[in-house]
Design brief:
Number of strands: 11
Strand content: 35-45%
Oligomer: single chain
Shape: globular
Number of helices: 4
Structural class: alpha/beta
Length: about 220
């Protein structure tokens, strides 16, 4: 599969876009946050890199020129809280990649036996700065398929400390529910499924045991 032009929906401050641009790829990305886009543009300019950036919603966007591949791998897809918005996003993706182009989509599925009250914590350090992020599921509404989530970030450097707390909602998907959604967008087909190990040589069957899942979708070729 030959890919030279990439699209990232909800690209934020552009860590991945910048990395791809530095490797010589053509890149495009969009986000709803103007501060994040401004930071990304400065980031690209500092390194004398080029990328197409614009403000748009995940459920309503289009590209001036189709991409070979698109990716959204950090659970951002689940911020689309309705089936209609999720379907519109996939339809926009199908219209933004070339025929035969792929979409790499990563999201956490909801296994039937998962504890509804989950907590995750990550810690990273660079030099004297240490950052800890804690994500907690506050409430789970199985009927509406909505999770209420809170993220707390703490950054510490010496005696200085910075804390940030943010609450938001995510839509929930079981494997069956995601398959049903995908079936409603006939211009896309499921090629492969991977788990959190990202082993390209070992695709996994989609089943109820999977949690973090990477889907490889492809825009169908004209018949």
């Amino acid at each position: 599969f030959d890919a030279r032009r990439f699209l990232e929906p909800a690209c934020g401050s552009g860590r991945l876009i910048t990395g791809l641009a530095a490797r010589g790829y053509q890149v495009a990305g969009f986000d709803l946050s103007q501060p994040a886009l401004s930071y990304l543009r400065r980031r690209l300019a500092r390194r004398r890199l080029h990328g197409e950036t614009f403000e748009a919603e995940m459920s309503d966007f289009c590209l001036t020129r189709p991409a070979d591949a698109a990716y959204c791998i950090v659970n951002t897809f689940r911020h689309l809280l309705t089936e209609q918005a999720a379907r519109a996003h996939l339809e926009c993706i199908a219209g933004s990649v070339r025929p035969g182009g792929i979409y790499i989509l990563g999201l956490h599925l909801f296994p039937p036996d998962r504890d509804a009250e989950d907590v995750w914590r990550w810690t990273g350090q660079r030099g004297k700065t240490k950052v800890t992020v804690t994500q907690r599921v506050l409430r789970t509404d199985l009927r509406r398929r909505i999770e209420d989530v809170q993220v707390c970030l703490m950054a510490r450097r010496g005696s200085k400390e910075f804390r940030l707390r943010h609450a938001f909602q995510l839509r929930m998907y079981t494997p069956r529910q995601f398959r049903r959604l995908l079936a409603s967008v006939p211009s896309l087909e499921l090629c492969d499924v991977y788990d959190f190990r990202y082993d390209i040589e070992r695709p996994s069957p989609l089943n109820d045991e999977m949690a973090y899942t990477v889907f490889v979708l492809r825009r169908r070729l004209p018949s």
